[in-house]
Amino acid sequence: MAGEDVFDVVVIGAGPVGENVAGRVVRGGLTAAVVEERLAGGECAYYACVPSKALLRPVELAADVGRMPGLELRGPIDAPAVLARRDKTVSHLDDRGQVSWIEGLPATFVRGRGRLAGPLHVEVTAPDGIRSLRARHAVVIATGSDPLVPGVPGLLEARPWTNREATSVQQVPKRLVVIGGGPVGCEMSQALHSLGAHETTVLVRGDRLLTRTEPFAGGLLAASLQESGIDVRFGRSTTEVRRPVPDGPVTVRTDDGATVEADEILVATGRRPAVRELGLDTVGLPADRPIEVDADMRATGVPWLYAVGDVNGRNLLTHMGKYQARVCGDVIVARATGTPDDRPDLRDTADDQGAPQVIFTDPQICAVGRTESQARADGFNVRAVEYDMGEVTGAYLRGEHYTGRAKMVVDEDRRVLVGVTFAGPGVVDLLHSATIAVVGEVPLDRLWHAVPAFPTVSEIWLRLLEEYGL
């Protein structure tokens, strides 16, 4: 074992969350080491957010063209060209640029598998042996999450795809079975179907897609998928998977006795925090559960340990992990330098108010805050208002047959929004205004005076408020 290296902060995990922690602590005058076993930049940059959106953007453009009279999409989407651009967006799975960015902070990048080995002590298993790191002030866990593969008989042996294989695909299968009706299942089934998976079947255990959103959102998306030729089957649980020949066809049996044969199977049934083999038991924490943290991202009962992003289980979204990282990094700097650590910006409040999320399908699904059912369950005195987005002039001008819907959930006692959902083409650009309204708790009487430009889709705000009675 090499000698012990000492830093103010040691970060385990070099995804966007870990990178943000390192950037904040270095900006505050501290030294940092960042440990990563895989690719610097993390899951989001190479196998999730970035490549999936690169695959979905042509789908969105093709749909927009199809809605506009006078334009014509000549032939199918050029799959090889789309995949080539996807490869470019992920730097061809080469992380040298990200490593250089980390080193330019400046921070020390350490390649290897990091694990806790006692208080403020991290051991890194590297290609050239074991390296010992010591933190003066804090160790930060930012290892993200891993795809969850359910224990269906034969599924693991069939070598199913997860988001990693789906987003890095080089040869699109002609036949694809997708298990799961959440964001990953919906996005990737639509992307791969448009790129050549002409026989795409989506198996959904429940009765609708996107169960954490307003019901109309999943309904609009299901109609769009089915109209494009995707076979969406609700109320179907997978009971058995068989793939007798390696790289041969896969057969999926469902609980109604039906079977589906495909070339590949994609499992999109959720994720679990990547906490295993991190040595959490060496500091008195459970080794197989999300790391419980306070609003300052400090692990409960371990004052020098912090956990940010997916590993703390608060919110499995990249932008929320980066937000937590900014809070965490600034808290560590404050405590290390003896400055006040109780400012409002040094506590995570956004997760409790409801994180913004986008599903980049056609139609796009955007939401922030609580759904109506969530708000009622949380004890709010709620009134909900919906409006057909196709009735807004700005939406109509985007093309024929614009289909969409918007909903706002109002806390009647305070007359502020606690949730907003948009479903429709191009609605992603409406989300941040909704986020500001929800997080800023803008009174409806004040929001009424935020005049939307005409003719834009943002006029939906005026229509919702009019429907409410303002």
Q: What layout of secondary structure does this protein have?
A:
Elements: E1 5-12, H1 16-27, E2 32-36, H2 42-47, H3 49-67, H4 79-89, H5 96-103, E3 108-111, E4 113-116, E5 121-126, E6 129-141, E7 145-147, H6 163-167, E8 175-179, H7 183-194, E9 199-204, H8 215-227, E10 231-234, E11 238-242, E12 250-254, E13 259-262, E14 264-267, E15 271-273, E16 305-307, H9 318-337, H10 350-353, E17 357-359, E18 364-369, H11 372-377, E19 382-388, H12 393-396, E20 405-411, E21 416-424, H13 431-439, H14 444-447, H15 460-468
Number of domains: 3
**CATH architecture verdict of the largest domain:** 3-Layer(bba) Sandwich
What is the global morphology?
Answer: globular
What is the number of E strands?
21
The helix fraction, in percent, is: 25-40%
| Structural class assignment | alpha/beta
Rg over C-alpha atoms, rounded to the nearest angstrom: 24 Å
CATH level 3 topology of the largest domain: FAD/NAD(P)-binding domain
Q: Which regions contain 5 or more consecutive residues with pLDDT less than 50? A: none
Briefly, what CATH class of the largest domain? Alpha Beta
Major sheet, described briefly? 7 strands, mixed
Estimate the mean pLDDT confidence. Answer: 95
Distance between the termini: 70 Å
CATH homologous superfamily annotation of the largest domain: FAD/NAD(P)-binding domain
**Helix segment count?**
15
Beta-strand percentage? 15-25%
